[in-house]
Amino acid sequence: MDNRDSKELEKSKSHIIVEIIEYVPNSVVIKTIIKKSTGNISAMSFDSGEGLTEKTSPFDTFAQIIEGKAEIVIDKKSNFLESGQGIIIPAHSPNFIKPNGRFKMIMTIIKSGYE
Q1: Distance CA 24, CA 112 (A)
Q2: Is the pLDDT of residue 115 over 60?
Q3: Which domains does the chain have, with CATH numbers?
Q4: DSSP-based helix, strand, coil % in the chain, nearest 5
């Protein structure tokens, strides 16, 4: 199950990012932090056993784990990340997120520079 909250966070106000998104049983929850035509930033929570299927994006994506651990597979190569670590998923690289217990992450997609 995929729960999306497309309402941006309140501007000019401090937020504890790991607390703005909760775990929902058997779900991936996505909360938009900021959404612009040039890219977006989202916080995501994954319940145990939940992941994302393989996809390819035309844009570079920065994934940062903010709680727990995750396995991010890029071009068939596994990358094991834990809280505080991040990785750049290159544009046009097949990738997916393998379930590895509950975790939260931030995804930043940069769309400019590809016109």
Answers
A1: 33
A2: no
A3: 2-110 (2.60.120.10)
A4: 5, 55, 45
